[in-house]
Amino acid sequence: xxxxxxxxxxxxxxxxxxxxxxxxxxxxxxxxxxxxxxxxxxxxxxxxxxxxxxxxxxxxxxxxxxxxxxxxxxxxxxxxxxxxxxxxxxx
Length: 91
Known about the structure:
The chain has helices at residues 5-41, 44-63, 69-90. Helices cover 87% and strands 0% of the residues.
């Protein structure tokens, strides 16, 4: 436990930021999972919609520096690759 006043304040700030960041990280993860499920189901329209939302959530998290921009790019790339494979398979 911190004894110094500045350390106590820093701990409070870190906890507040952690809870705030959790929302964006969690929502990005949720949308990516929903997109993956939609892709696996083979429903093109639903998958396209969820992929768009997932990409937006990842961009938002990267913009706020909650996740690294390369991490977001990697996840988007993998998601788009799965989406393209699903579209190619259904044609």
